[in-house]
Design a protein that fits this description.
five-stranded parallel sheet, 2 domains, alpha/beta
């Protein structure tokens, strides 16, 4: 018999963390294990692909964050057309009762499930009575005037409200990707960068310069189209402080924790170089 925290958990933000922590606390009292069940791909990517939903966390990042919170295992349900067509009752019977033998289920206040999102917390509680498990609904979390929701965080990140987004997330924002060959402009300016190939499903922060960490190295990360050289495609370029060597062909992760400034077009490369120096000095002081 298990305790299950149930949700998509994209971002593993403060609201999700509250659901997980309450489930873990209950599992410890009952001396049993706590599982987290999530879905991949994100249900919206299957139900409404035309919306072009971008993820705060890919499934690997999500699993790591959930395990760091202390769950014994992350169960990933493939959100397929078949799963989408399951009624709320069938989902509970097959996925929670038969597969996991649930004793208690923890969900957020706005949890919905089953075909056409026909199931809600009330129907989950009704099904819990039928199959003999308890349902605990965790209320909404707010930070200041902001409700802690993945949709709100996506909007903040994409529109430049990065400081507030990080407060709602409760952890840095991660970008991971393979380092590929770039145009070499950073090296010519004296600030070599690792050009990261990011998954098209991942939400990129608003164009600008960010402070972050790549492992134990501080880094300045530029996200944008490099307007000083004629706008091109959006790139993610990380300059690792006090690093010497080549990262080409390797996969790296940068954890962004502060937005330093918006993207700006400079008169020439000399002015850009001066600004990059100022950006890097700011990163050093953080």
């Amino acid at each position: 018999m298990s305790i299950v925290a149930l949700g998509t958990f994209d971002g593993v933000h403060l609201g999700h963390q509250k659901v997980i922590n309450e489930a873990i606390t209950s599992a410890k009292k009952l001396k049993t294990i706590c599982l987290a069940m999530t879905f991949a791909p994100h249900p919206q990517q299957v139900i409404a692909p035309e919306r072009g939903l971008k993820l705060l966390t890919d499934i690997k990042e999500r699993k790591i964050l959930l395990c760091q919170l202390g769950v014994a295992k992350v169960v990933v349900m493939k959100f397929s057309r078949h799963l989408r067509r399951l009624s709320a009752a069938a989902f509970v019977k097959r996925c929670l009762v038969d597969r996991l033998g649930v004793r208690q289920v923890f969900v957020g206040f706005d949890f919905a499930f089953g075909q056409a999102r026909g199931g809600d917390v009330a129907s989950l509680k009704h099904l819990g009575q039928k199959y003999g498990f308890q349902v605990h609904v965790v209320p909404a979390v707010k930070v200041g005037h902001y409700p802690v929701k993945s949709s709100v965080i996506r909007q903040l990140i994409s529109q430049g409200g990065f400081t507030q987004a990080i407060k709602l997330l409760g952890h840095p924002y991660q970008l991971s990707g393979k380092v590929v060959r770039g145009a070499g402009r950073g090296t010519k300016l004296g600030f070599p960068t690792a050009n990261m190939r990011i998954s098209p499903d991942k939400l990129l922060p608003a164009p600008g310069v960010y402070a972050g960490l790549a492992g134990d190295k501080k880094c300045a990360v530029n996200i944008g189209r490099r307007p000083t050289f004629g706008a091109g495609q959006t790139l993610v370029e990380a300059h690792l402080l006090d690093f010497h060597g080549s990262l080409r062909g390797k996969k790296i992760t940068v954890a962004l924790f502060k937005r330093l400034r918006a993207e700006k077009q400079f008169a020439d490369a000399a002015q850009l170089k001066k600004q990059i120096s100022r950006d890097i000095n700011r990163v050093k002081l953080l």
